[in-house]
Amino acid sequence: MVKPSKDIFKVLSSFTEPGLQTGILEHGSLAQAKKGDVLIKEGQYLNFLPIVIKGRIRVFQEKDDREILLYYVAKGETCMMSLSSAYFDYNSKANGIAMEPTELLVLPAFVIAEWQLRYPSWNRFIIQTFKARYDDLLQAFGDVAFKPIQARIKDYLASKVTENSSKQVAISHQTLANELGTTRVVVSRILKEMELDKVLTLHRGYIELT
Amino acid sequence: MVKPSKDIFKVLSSFTEPGLQTGILEHGSLAQAKKGDVLIKEGQYLNFLPIVIKGRIRVFQEKDDREILLYYVAKGETCMMSLSSAYFDYNSKANGIAMEPTELLVLPAFVIAEWQLRYPSWNRFIIQTFKARYDDLLQAFGDVAFKPIQARIKDYLASKVTENSSKQVAISHQTLANELGTTRVVVSRILKEMELDKVLTLHRGYIELT
DNA sequence: GAATGTGTGTATCAAAAGATACACAAGGTG
DNA sequence: CACCTTGTGTATCTTTTGATACACACATTC
Predict the structure, then answer these.
(1) What range defines the domain where residue B201 resides?
(2) Would you say residue B3 lies in a domain?
(3) Same domain? A96 vs A165
(4) Nearest nt (C1') to B172 (CA)?
(5) How confident is the model at residue B95 (pLDDT cuts 50, 70, 90)?
(6) Fewer CB within 10 Å, N or C, chain A?
């Protein structure tokens, strides 16, 4: 049980109220996760709220041997599943796995509602989280409902290109399939078509957009 | 511009603080919508928050000539799109249409954030709305991503049977297709298969589960 | 370099879903 | 009744997606 230091407010810069900062230092603890660590499992009850200080968490749904991405939790953000779960005593409807070595600030569930009425910046944080996750999900929902996989692959790759400002996207076909909720063979097939259409070049382990 | 009376708190029974009630009576106004009235259009900016007092609103996404249901807004509830839009000055990502003659309490956007810090019951209302809509959407997302249409039709009809405690579900094939994001022909085909499997009987304008 | 795991290409077949077109029935309206 | 709208049944064809199977290349480890 490691206590956080004031350094975390370099990352959590939106939490400005002195009382809030004191509360975080008092009730919070720091936890580490290795790449691949399972942080949240579907069905699990959570009575704490993790906020990512460093690293990234992938949150996804699973059914049989298929997966589909919901969202990533980046530095300074928290996970919707935990928030819902901690706030309402519901269980998680998704899984969360650390993508890289990740550092978490863990807060007990009871502070969420309490601080929300007391500290405007905390309230804003909670509302922002709900809103951002809802928007993400809505976007994903529309895509799955209306777009063919080909277009979704294109979109996914395009967003990665922007995100990393590199034309080369390091991802395997299997992982891409897991992000989009389909299978490896389908992804390979479509990627090959796209290569024939000259929109990208395929390599082992990465894809190069043209 | 019709001012609301105290009667609305029969519906909005969770708003207990006297100050909140006064605020609602002061800043709110009542509006009526006829069946089929378009209340929210995709892309629209909203600077008000409507709360349903009577009736029901259908919120859905649209692309080309396809539709897919997001959720219904029932008595005492508000619409996630409006909330997001009014709270954050974003535009709506969905459409809202009155399903029946509907009465709305309309509040100006600025009250949302203000009341949220001042009145716990209002805060709870806002959070509940986010949470409930997120859950709905997550469920729908998983269904679209993983379930074949046949199963989704089954689920949809089953939920209507429960909701109305009647084995007869009054819905046309076209409307059902619009709820699920597919086309009429597909729905008719699958329903016919299901009739041959003896799980339901088809009639003009309604479907009877067995 | 043999063994193993991971990543990719591809063929074949099957199932699901969509597009288009047409027939017809039921109900309401003039 | 003639007319129009809405709802349904269904055939045909195509596209998309999925399932299974197999080959092979690259990389890592022993």
Answers:
(1) 149-209
(2) no
(3) no
(4) D7
(5) very high
(6) N
